[in-house]
TrEMBL record:
Gene3D superfamilies assigned: Bacterial extracellular solute-binding protein, family 7
Protein name per Swiss-Prot or TrEMBL: Tripartite ATP-independent transporter solute receptor, DctP family
One Gene Ontology cellular component annotation held by this UniProt entry: outer membrane-bounded periplasmic space
One GO BP: transmembrane transport
Annotated keywords: Receptor, Signal
The keyword Signal is annotated on this UniProt entry: yes
One GO MF term attached to the UniProt entry: carbohydrate binding
Endpoints of the signal sequence: 1-31
Coiled coil ranges: none
Species whose genome carries this gene: Modicisalibacter muralis
CDD domains reported for this sequence: PBP2_TRAP_SBP_like_3 (cd13671)
Length: 333
């Protein structure tokens, strides 16, 4: 209950203030209940790793910090959730670097198609000095990136036919994540791109608002998109890292000791996520095949890679300061 100052004599207020201060000293520091955003369902590698992160943090801080993961994107779509973690309305999240581009321009480099030639190349870059540079850029926007998850390679899928060459994309409408680079990428291949929230894609594929989308095997499977879009073509055009990100305001409230605990838990979670990922790719592939999905290898991947020249040229023309970062990543094989 708030005390209305005008009704209480001054000396009582003084006594109350001193008593309050003494009570604060006597009580242990307030436990922090952290709320975390996760787009994936329970059981998904990222979800399991985040749950483990939450448990490790709770145990090792002896409850001083007690994170709770909200799965299935129930706290909002990814671009909104990024804003919420930036403002401290949410405390942590696992974010894909795709929708991060509009906020942290340097991370757009990670959305350039075929920038990484393998998942190992991506891990090598993100675990080293270059990954640190991205973390510094994220911090400028109030996001503390503590470790990097993988998300395999993304490929196009659709309701109509296999995609063997860029010509097969002609006239098809694909959902992409919220980033102009993906619109350009799809355009130069001859398709039409529609940025849309992940949670809306299933229905849009089902009703024919969309002809296709693009994602890795585990998301294609766990989202149920495979039930409605039966042609999965292994273009593997994007390999995008994801962060375990903490709100800067929540991070700064922690003691040095607790920061160390949280950082280590995020690193452990990434190690676990990467291990679980490989098994999940196999399992998801089996599930979609079983359901009658037609998977096709793309024999001439070079045709897709070569089409990306104008995307790179335009990007560098608009972001000349990021050209050296692109070069550093490509060199770090
Ligand atoms: C998944 C990724 C999510 C989300 C989703 C999407 O692979 O892990 O964070 O970005 O794709 O396509 O929106």
């Amino acid at each position: 209950m708030r005390i209305r100052k005008s009704l209480v004599p001054n000396r009582f207020l003084h006594v109350a203030a001193v008593a309050g201060a003494l009570m604060t000293l006597a009580l242990p520091a307030q436990a922090e209940d952290w709320r975390g955003w996760n787009i994936h369902p329970p059981g998904y590698p990222n979800s399991v790793a985040l749950e483990t992160f939450a448990k490790e943090v709770t145990e090792k801080t002896e409850g001083r910090v007690s994170p709770r993961v909200y799965n299935n994107g129930v706290l909002g779509a990814q671009p909104d959730a990024i804003m919420q973690v930036r403002s401290g309305a949410l405390d942590f999240a696992n974010f894909n670097m795709g929708p991060m581009g509009p906020i942290v321009p340097a991370t757009n480099v990670l959305s350039l198609p075929f920038i990484f030639n393998s998942v190992d190349h991506m891990y090598k870059v993100m675990d080293g000095e270059i990954g640190q540079r991205f973390a510094e850029e994220l911090e400028k926007k109030n996001l503390i990136a503590l470790s990097w998850f993988g998300s395999g390679a993304r490929s196009f899928y659709n309701t109509k036919h296999p995609i063997e060459t860029p010509e097969d994309m002609q006239g098809l409408k694909f959902r992409v994540m919220n980033n102009d680079i993906y619109v350009d990428m799809t355009d130069v291949l001859g398709g039409n791109a529609t940025p849309m929230a992940y949670g809306e894609v299933y229905q849009s594929l089902k009703t024919g608002v969309l002809d296709g989308a693009e994602n890795n095997y585990p998301s294609y499977e766990s989202s149920g998109h495979y039930e409605v879009a039966k042609y999965y073509s292994l273009t593997e055009h994007l390999i995008i890292p994801e962060c375990v990100c903490i709100a800067k305001s929540s991070w700064e409230e922690l003691s040095d000791k607790d920061q160390k605990i949280v950082r280590q838990a995020a690193i452990d979670a990434a190690e676990m996520q990467r291990k679980l990922w490989a098994d999940r790719v196999e399992a998801s592939r089996d599930i979609v095949l079983e359901a009658g999905v037609k998977i096709n290898e793309v024999d001439d991947k070079k045709a897709f890679q070569n089409s990306m020249k104008p995307v790179y040229e335009e990007f560098i023309a608009e972001n000349p300061d990021l050209e050296s970062l692109i070069n550093d990543i490509q060199k770090a094989k």
